[in-house]
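Kindly inspect this chain:
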Amino acid sequence: MEISDIFMNKIEGNQITLRGWIYRHRIGGGGKIVFAVLRDATGIVQTTIKAENTDERSFKNASEAYVESSVIVTGIVKKDERAPGGYEIAVQSFETVCRGESFPVAKDLSEEFLLDIRHLWLRSQKLTKIMQIRSTMVHTIHEFFQKRGYTLFDPPILTPNACEGKMTLFEVNYFDTKMYLSQSWQLYAEAAIFALGKIYDVAPTFRAEKSKTAKHLAEFWMAEMEAAWIELDEAVEIAKDEIKFLVERVLEKHEEDLKFLGRDIDKLKAAISRPFPTITYTKALEILKEKEGMNVKWGEDLHAVEEEKLMKHFDTPIVVTNYPIEIMAFYKPRDPKDSNDQKTALCFDMLAPEGYGEIVGGSQRSLDAKDIVKRIEKEGGKIDDYRWYLDLRKYGSVPHSGYGLGVERVLRWICGLDNIKDAIAFPRTMSRAFP
């Protein structure tokens, strides 16, 4: 039996057996009573072990158990409003499977120390709930695209190409040549759509960004989609639908977990109850100037500060389109309808409210092989490395678009986390590669 079964089924008066770990432990009643809060993957429950109700061995085991000792207990379920969740187990038998040593996790420890012992801190209620919410979120991503007729497509992790700029590539020795860890599945996804039409994936992504912000990781997961015959506007609407669907599912299953994490549930519910606005990059600069007094030069990217100031004026996610073409990757085409001399790209970012910044990024894909070549060369790339990608423009190319959703960034927003490091089990950053 799992601990959650007690609360779901309200099995008062029944004898049950639980397997788990000691979450909290104290001895009272002049040494005659042990109070041990037990945890498993589904929750926590208080157990009470009295010397008069158990044999000598069971009581000794309970008295000598440290926090995180693994145990098997048998007892009667009783209602007790003072206990966590309103139930406790009156223990009849207490077996120690492995008596743990003095556990190094305690209150008021530094973030760096907790990262050093992440393999143990992962057992905390906080990280357990975050990982369970993450599991639901990833499952929901699959559900969203499967319902829409998309095919799961898995790309290679080792690639010969840069997709998001050479400066953030992780180089790997690959037999007698150089390869790189994938920055995105996108180039390979563009090849696959000519066979499969509509595809998606959830896969690890690597960026050697020398950044120590609360929203950057060197290894993270992206949920990406690519589809033939769709243009930018349709891709934007799909992204909006996906975000709403994810938040709805998480709220449906994990509202109490979110409250435990300190998340303001009302803000999340409000954020998905209304349409997400779409504005242009140029309009975003106007808002920043008029409402924040910030003079951002046209042509500069929106960084964390600008995004945070902009989002003070929205309580839902928003989509920003038509960023300057000169700061965009080679595969993003010029907007032919742009009144600003086609200086903007058919691309978009989705920004989350409450200062969480970019959570989704995508674009329509360029079909102009000559322009792609010119821009690859400008970025310092070798055309030979992209010959196969350029072939896609020769043989029956069609309008197509796609986007990538940052799993950890969306999870950070949904859970209201201060730092993205808590949105993944073992974070990798420029200063963190252990454990």
User: Anything to note?
Assistant: The mean pLDDT is 95. Residues 201 and 224 are 5 Å apart (CA to CA). The longest strand covers residues 15-28.
